[in-house]
Write a structure and sequence with these properties.
The complex is a heterodimer of chains A (318) and B (212). With 318 residues, chain A is α/β, with parallel strands linked by helices. In chain A, 49% of the residues lie in helices and 10% in strands. Chain A has one domain (3-317): Alpha-Beta Barrel (TIM Barrel), CATH 3.20.20. Chain A has 13 helices and 9 strands. A 7-stranded parallel sheet of chain A has the order 2-3-4-5-6-7-8. In chain A, helix 4 (87-101) links the parallel strand 2 (77-79) and strand 3. Chain A is globular, with a radius of gyration of 19 Å. Chain B has 212 residues and is of the alpha/beta class. Chain B folds into 2 domains: 3-85, Orthogonal Bundle (Methyltransferase, Methionine Synthase (B12-binding Domains), Chain A, domain 1), CATH 1.10.1240; 90-210, 3-Layer(aba) Sandwich (Rossmann fold). Chain B has 10 helices and 5 strands. Chain B has helices at 3-13, 16-28, 33-53, 59-76, 82-85, 103-114, 128-138, 155-165, 183-189, 198-210, and strands at residues 90-95, 118-121, 142-146, 173-177, 193-194. Chain B is elongated and about 55 Å long. The chains are: A alpha/beta (318), B alpha/beta (212).
């Protein structure tokens, strides 16, 4: 069974043997880990001026960096961040990874259309719109949804390249969601639900990510039927065992390793947290082991490797 | 229901138009601007702040309540005497060097303004020395440092050191907050106050200013 097949089984909450699958939304520490610059840290100001050969070399370099990280840390899935991100170059990068690895890995890309927590500059204006321009905001949400579904239909015509979309609009702070449950029901749920259905109908899996305390809106998120929920942020008070108990029969779960402890905790605390996560997550099926965010810039690599080592030694079914 | 209570309730609902109408009516009826401010507008905002602390209301609800309060304040501002119009204190706030996140910082600023404090907003990516310089130049009683990242929170300790180095550590209080920050961290770096959320930060800042 390939890593891709194992990952899909986890998303479907089906039994698998061997290791519980693992991946990261982003693994920024490529330079330290494999000596390659992460694709998102590269700039191509003169891309269109390059010869096709030079472009191919850059694409192969980016593909290699994704593949080498996946191989080094036994990831089952690769989250591709195409750079440049236009459709043609996205296809070229996906095709290059497939040429080099076949169907070994589950490939995913960004694909959310729903509103996220606005940045500090726009937060006030966005909040005002929720009160003063409900219909206008709903129309905007619908337009964004239709754009994403059109993209998925286009991508679906290139069968065998992409497996799924990660929906990464953040909804929650550590203390609470930005949106009240009522606001979420009005401005997010209908569109998230339609997005998951649309992707499902075109043959793509969905992993819904958000940081923070999701508990007040968790039921609505599950009702939208993503294949998996990602992050399950312990810094936002999310209890993996409790979520598993409540929703484990309806959605797969990914994440929950405490990034705060990875950064500033003692080694003993990290080890204990990783073991807790494996214990709670692997109880039953439908779990993908990973950090509760990503391997972000500034995270000590040795901490990620410690977490990965424990998973490799202990994250085994049966 | 008294008109002040009505103003308070409409601030809590974020009903800006109603707040404007009620404040105009209260002024026309001869209610003192000071009463309108403290017992109507700020009273409503204080209730929202308390509910936010206990997770009963969400950020957008706080923001529209603040909008409604400010709309009322604009009407009575020209009528307030100098004494009444005086801020409860002055603080400066910023997100620490290396960190560009401003959501929490802006929320704290808004809650502090809702409490009647004058807030000097230094923005994001603020160097330790810049916090201290701003506090000295503007006569701020409190320096408020925000960080979202575990990789930037250590800059807060440098703010404490910069205040010592500038010889103003005894004159200013240093408050810290943000997702990764804890009371233990506050103690470890020698800051004066940790606030777990925006409403608590505003309460604490008022207290620190009043202790002057």
């Amino acid at each position: 069974m390939t890593e891709r097949e194992r990952f899909i089984k986890a998303l479907k909450r089906e039994p698998i043997e061997g290791h519980c699958p693992t991946f990261e939304l982003v693994f920024y520490l490529t330079l330290e880990a494999i000596g390659k610059i992460h694709p998102s840290q590269q700039r191509f100001d003169q891309w269109s001026q390059m010869s096709r050969t030079e472009q191919d070399l850059h694409i192969a370099y980016m593909a290699d960096s994704y593949i080498e990280i996946a191989e080094k840390y036994h990831h089952s899935a690769i989250f591709v961040h195409p750079n440049p991100g236009d459709f043609e170059n996205t296809l070229r990068l996906l095709a290059c990874i497939r040429e080099k690895t076949g169907d070994k890995y589950f490939l995913m890309m960004h694909g959310d259309c729903t509103f996220e927590i606005p940045n500090g500059e726009n937060m006030f204006a966005f909040s005002e719109r929720m009160y003063d321009d409900e219909e206008g905001l709903k129309k905007e949400a619908q337009r964004r949804l239709e754009d994403k579904l059109r993209y998925a239909e286009k991508m679906a015509k290139h069968a065998g390249l992409l497996d799924g979309f990660a929906l990464c609009s953040d909804y929650c702070f550590n203390v609470n969601p930005f949106f009240s449950p009522a606001m979420f029901e009005t401005f997010i749920t209908p569109y998230l639900s339609a997005l998951c259905k649309g992707y499902r109908d075109t043959g793509f899996y969905t992993i819904k990510h958000t940081d923070g305390n999701i508990m007040p809106i968790l039921d609505q998120m599950v009702q939208c039927r993503p294949d998996a929920l990602h992050s399950l942020d312990p810094q936002g008070g999310v209890d993996l065992a409790a979520v598993k108990k409540m929703y484990g029969d309806r959605v797969a779960l990914c994440g929950n390793v405490n990034c705060g402890l990875l950064q500033t905790g003692t080694e003993e605390e990290v080890v204990a947290d990783v073991r807790r996560c494996l214990h709670d997550g692997m109880d039953g099926w439908g779990f993908v082991f990973c950090t509760s965010n990503c391997a972000y810039t500034g995270l000590p690599l040795e901490r990620y490797e410690l977490m990965n080592k424990i998973w490799w030694e202990e994250g085994i079914y049966g | 229901m008294s008109i002040l209570l009505e103003i308070s309730e409409n601030v809590q609902k974020g009903a800006m138009k109603a707040v404007k109408e009620l404040v105009n009516k209260a002024v026309a009826d001869g209610v003192s601007p000071n009463e309108i401010l403290n017992d109507g507008l700020i009273a409503g905002m204080n209730i929202i702040g308390e509910k936010f602390k206990t997770n009963e209301v969400y950020v957008p609800e706080v923001l529209v309540a603040a909008r409604a309060m400010n709309a009322g304040v604009q009407i009575i501002k020209p009528l307030l005497t100098d004494e009444n119009a005086q801020a409860k204190g002055k603080v400066c706030i910023g997100t620490v060097q290396g960190d560009m996140h401003d959501i929490g910082k802006n929320l704290v600023k808004m809650m502090m303004e809702g409490k009647g404090l004058e807030v000097v907003d230094l923005g994001t990516d603020v160097a330790p020395e810049a916090f201290v310089q701003a506090a000295v130049e503007n006569g701020c009683r409190v320096i408020c440092c925000s960080a979202l990242l575990t990789t930037t929170m250590d800059v807060m300790e440098k703010v404490v050191e910069a205040a010592k180095k500038a010889g103003v550590r005894e004159q200013v209080k240093i408050m810290v907050g943000g997702a990764p920050v804890t009371e233990e961290f506050r103690l470890a770096i020698g800051a004066d106050c940790y606030a777990a959320d925006a409403a608590s930060a505003a309460d604490a800042a008022v207290m620190l200013c009043e202790c002057e």
